[in-house]
Amino acid sequence: MVKHVILWKLREELSIGEKMTVKAEIKAGLEGLFGVIPGLLEIRVYTEGLSGSNVDLMLDSSFVDEAALKGYAVHPAHVAVAEGKVRPYTAVRSCMDFEV
What we know:
The chain has 100 residues and is α+β, with helices and mostly antiparallel strands. It is built from three helices and four strands, in the order E-H-E-E-H-H-E. It has helices spanning 16-31, 66-74, 76-86, and strands spanning 2-10, 40-46, 57-63, 90-99. A four-stranded antiparallel sheet has the order 2-3-1-4. Helix 1 (16-31) packs antiparallel against helix 3. The termini are close together.
Protein backbone atom coordinates (compact mmCIF):
# COMPACT_ATOMS: atom_id res chain seq x y z
CA MET A 1 0.00 0.00 0.00
CA VAL A 2 1.13 3.57 -0.73
CA LYS A 3 0.31 6.66 1.34
CA HIS A 4 0.02 10.08 -0.29
CA VAL A 5 0.06 12.96 2.19
CA ILE A 6 -0.11 16.64 1.24
CA LEU A 7 0.00 19.74 3.41
CA TRP A 8 -1.23 23.07 2.02
CA LYS A 9 -0.99 26.68 3.13
CA LEU A 10 -3.70 28.87 1.65
CA ARG A 11 -2.96 32.23 0.05
CA GLU A 12 -2.55 34.98 2.64
CA GLU A 13 -4.78 37.45 0.79
CA LEU A 14 -7.86 35.26 1.36
CA SER A 15 -10.16 36.47 4.13
CA ILE A 16 -11.08 34.16 7.00
CA GLY A 17 -14.48 33.58 5.40
CA GLU A 18 -12.94 32.83 2.02
CA LYS A 19 -10.51 30.39 3.64
CA MET A 20 -13.38 28.57 5.34
CA THR A 21 -15.22 28.27 2.01
CA VAL A 22 -12.11 27.15 0.13
CA LYS A 23 -11.29 24.52 2.76
CA ALA A 24 -14.82 23.11 2.60
CA GLU A 25 -14.73 23.00 -1.21
CA ILE A 26 -11.33 21.31 -1.30
CA LYS A 27 -12.48 18.74 1.26
CA ALA A 28 -15.70 17.98 -0.64
CA GLY A 29 -13.92 17.84 -3.99
CA LEU A 30 -11.10 15.54 -2.95
CA GLU A 31 -13.15 13.27 -0.69
CA GLY A 32 -15.67 13.02 -3.54
CA LEU A 33 -13.04 11.17 -5.56
CA PHE A 34 -13.49 8.05 -3.44
CA GLY A 35 -15.05 5.36 -5.60
CA VAL A 36 -14.11 7.26 -8.77
CA ILE A 37 -10.34 6.73 -8.94
CA PRO A 38 -9.17 3.13 -9.52
CA GLY A 39 -6.90 1.90 -6.73
CA LEU A 40 -7.83 4.69 -4.28
CA LEU A 41 -8.44 2.93 -0.96
CA GLU A 42 -9.03 5.90 1.34
CA ILE A 43 -9.03 9.69 1.11
CA ARG A 44 -9.53 12.20 3.88
CA VAL A 45 -8.97 15.96 4.08
CA TYR A 46 -8.40 17.58 7.47
CA THR A 47 -9.25 21.28 7.70
CA GLU A 48 -9.17 22.08 11.41
CA GLY A 49 -5.70 21.82 12.87
CA LEU A 50 -4.80 22.63 16.46
CA SER A 51 -3.57 26.13 17.31
CA GLY A 52 0.10 25.15 16.88
CA SER A 53 -0.41 24.14 13.24
CA ASN A 54 1.27 26.18 10.52
CA VAL A 55 -0.66 24.79 7.53
CA ASP A 56 -4.33 25.07 6.63
CA LEU A 57 -5.20 21.64 5.21
CA MET A 58 -3.91 18.09 5.07
CA LEU A 59 -4.74 15.35 2.58
CA ASP A 60 -4.25 11.79 3.82
CA SER A 61 -4.86 9.18 1.13
CA SER A 62 -4.02 5.53 0.50
CA PHE A 63 -3.59 3.64 -2.76
CA VAL A 64 -3.14 -0.03 -3.57
CA ASP A 65 0.26 0.67 -5.10
CA GLU A 66 2.46 3.33 -6.72
CA ALA A 67 0.89 2.72 -10.14
CA ALA A 68 -2.54 3.62 -8.71
CA LEU A 69 -1.08 6.82 -7.23
CA LYS A 70 0.37 7.74 -10.62
CA GLY A 71 -3.02 7.07 -12.22
CA TYR A 72 -4.71 9.32 -9.65
CA ALA A 73 -2.34 12.17 -10.49
CA VAL A 74 -3.54 12.29 -14.11
CA HIS A 75 -7.14 11.09 -13.70
CA PRO A 76 -9.50 13.72 -15.18
CA ALA A 77 -11.66 13.85 -12.03
CA HIS A 78 -8.63 14.55 -9.84
CA VAL A 79 -7.17 17.06 -12.29
CA ALA A 80 -10.50 18.96 -12.31
CA VAL A 81 -10.49 19.25 -8.50
CA ALA A 82 -6.80 20.20 -8.39
CA GLU A 83 -7.12 22.85 -11.12
CA GLY A 84 -10.49 24.24 -10.01
CA LYS A 85 -10.52 24.01 -6.22
CA VAL A 86 -6.95 23.62 -4.97
CA ARG A 87 -4.24 25.33 -7.03
CA PRO A 88 -5.94 28.74 -7.41
CA TYR A 89 -6.12 29.15 -3.61
CA THR A 90 -2.95 27.54 -2.26
CA ALA A 91 0.41 29.22 -1.79
CA VAL A 92 2.49 26.32 -0.47
CA ARG A 93 2.23 22.57 -1.11
CA SER A 94 4.32 19.90 0.59
CA CYS A 95 3.96 16.24 -0.33
CA MET A 96 5.26 12.92 0.91
CA ASP A 97 4.52 9.57 -0.72
CA PHE A 98 5.64 6.35 0.98
CA GLU A 99 4.99 2.63 1.17
CA VAL A 100 3.39 1.09 4.25
